[in-house]
């Protein structure tokens, strides 16, 4: 059944309704038109708009600039919502502050914003910003403008069908970038150096499970089953800015859900680690706490890791290289890529493929297998 529409605007068909949103001083009604893909869609936008008016969140909405309305969306809607993680809000606020607040489109009236303005802004950004940065900006701006459409400020999201690009050197460098992994010799050196220290379990558990640092620091004994030799990944720790208001913020260490839906997973524990975990007497609460009984901070773990590598005379690699090593070794040992992707909580096989890194000797050994058909 075709969706009924009643108006054609800018070459597109919409259903239009008119609602009274207030009255002037002389008592005459103030009316506003709302457009939707259907009658129910238009009515939903009208109801949302009128509800926001009653709650004092809209005053002459047509006069709001992009920057003003995005700030209201961030701090009056998202910051008070339980549906968004603190780390996600921090990312949204950062994009607003760095790419919207004082941008060429910041002072544009929200009702006048169009795709040409946004495309021109993206084109200018692409001269020195990466593909990733522009894509992140577009993703968040699109979410905001979807909200604007739902609330009745816009008929259509101007972020749709844009041409996204970044500078060419960034694309080339990204392709050339190699995954950092630890060699067998480096692993042995590190294990000997940290043996008996508080860092030993942290390192061995990460090397044996490939957890992200936040997932590792959020490990609770409730999620470790020594009998079935499994770890359930359901939480992650992250240090984020928590905003008390648009102008005031403070840092907190928060426990939140993992990175993506695929990050919720169950990981087998290697038998050698079961022996290590069995030796721990207190099997309650979180595994990794500081001397004051608080959750370890990721930045402190990274600092300690940097110091260990320096003392071991090993070239610097991020703590995340332990996770890279886990994925790389599994692939080198013949574990299929789908299984590795599941174990690591990747959203796509293409992400796992970056771990298909092996040393020159291994590559040479593999290629030499062709000798039998070449000779």
Protein model, in words:
By secondary structure, the protein is α+β, with helices and mostly antiparallel strands. The protein has 3 domains: 1-59, no CATH class; 63-177, DNA polymerase, domain 1; 184-363, hpI Integrase, Chain A (Orthogonal Bundle). The protein has helices at 39-54, 66-77, 86-100, 115-125, 131-150, 168-176, 184-194, 199-209, 213-217, 271-278, 298-311, 321-332, 337-344, 349-352, 360-367, 371-374; strands at residues 7-9, 12-23, 29-36, 224-225, 230-233, 236-243, 249-256, 265-268. The strands form 3 sheets. A 3-stranded antiparallel β-sheet has the order 1-2-3, covered by helices on one side. Helix 2 (66-77) packs antiparallel against helix 3, helix 8 (199-209) crosses helix 12 and helix 12 (321-332) runs antiparallel to helix 13 (337-344). The radius of gyration is 27 Å and the shape is elongated. Residues 358-364 have low confidence and may be disordered.
Task: Count every beta strand, where a strand is a DSSP E run of 2 or more residues.
Answer: 8
CATH fold annotation of the largest domain? hpI Integrase, Chain A
Strand order of the largest sheet: 1-2-3
Largest sheet: 3 strands, antiparallel
Q: What shape does the CA trace take? A: elongated
CATH H-tier superfamily of the largest domain: Intergrase catalytic core
Structural class: alpha+beta
Report the helical percentage: 40-55%
**What's the level 1 CATH class of the largest domain?**
Mainly Alpha
Helix and strand run:
EEEHHHHHHHHHEEEEEHHHHHHH
CATH architecture of the largest domain: Orthogonal Bundle
Mean pLDDT: 83
CA radius of gyration is 27 Å
| Distance N to C terminus | 68 Å
């Amino acid at each position: 059944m075709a969706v009924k529409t009643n108006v054609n605007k800018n070459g597109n068909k919409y259903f239009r309704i008119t609602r009274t949103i207030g009255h002037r001083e002389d008592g005459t009604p103030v009316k506003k038109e709302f457009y939707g893909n259907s009658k129910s869609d238009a009515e939903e936008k009208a109801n949302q708009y009128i509800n926001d008016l009653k709650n004092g969140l809209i005053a002459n909405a047509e006069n709001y600039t992009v920057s003003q309305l995005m700030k209201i969306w961030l701090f009056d809607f998202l910051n008070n919502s339980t549906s968004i993680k603190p780390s996600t809000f921090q990312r949204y606020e950062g994009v607003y502050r760095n790419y919207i607040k004082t941008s060429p489109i910041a002072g544009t009236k929200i009702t006048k914003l169009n795709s040409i303005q946004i495309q021109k802004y993206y084109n200018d950004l692409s001269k020195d910003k990466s593909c990733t940065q522009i894509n992140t900006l577009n993703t968040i701006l699109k979410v905001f403008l979807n909200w604007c459409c739902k609330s009745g400020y816009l008929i259509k999201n101007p972020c749709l069908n844009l041409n996204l690009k970044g500078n060419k050197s960034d694309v080339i460098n990204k392709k050339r970038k190699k995954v950092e992994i630890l060699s067998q010799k480096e692993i042995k050196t590190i294990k000997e150096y940290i043996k008996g220290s508080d860092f030993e379990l942290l390192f061995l558990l990460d090397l044996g499970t490939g957890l992200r640092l936040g997932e590792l620091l959020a490990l609770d004994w409730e999620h470790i089953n020594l009998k079935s030799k499994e770890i359930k990944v359901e939480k992650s720790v992250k240090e984020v800015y928590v905003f008390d208001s648009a102008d005031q913020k403070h840092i907190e260490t928060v426990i939140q859900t993992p990175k993506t839906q695929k990050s919720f997973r169950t990981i087998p524990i290697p038998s050698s680690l079961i022996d290590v975990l069995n030796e721990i007497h207190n099997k309650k609460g979180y595994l990794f706490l500081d001397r004051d009984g608080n959750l370890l901070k990721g930045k402190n773990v990274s600092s300690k890791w940097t110091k260990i590598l320096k003392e071991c005379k090993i070239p610097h690699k991020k703590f995340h290289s332990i996770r890279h090593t886990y994925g790389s070794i599994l692939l080198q040992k013949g574990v299929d890529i789908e299984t590795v992707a599941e174990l690591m909580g990747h959203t796509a096989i293409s992400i796992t493929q970056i771990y298909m890194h092996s040393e020159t000797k291994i590559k040479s050994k593999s290629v030499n297998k062709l000798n039998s058909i070449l000779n």
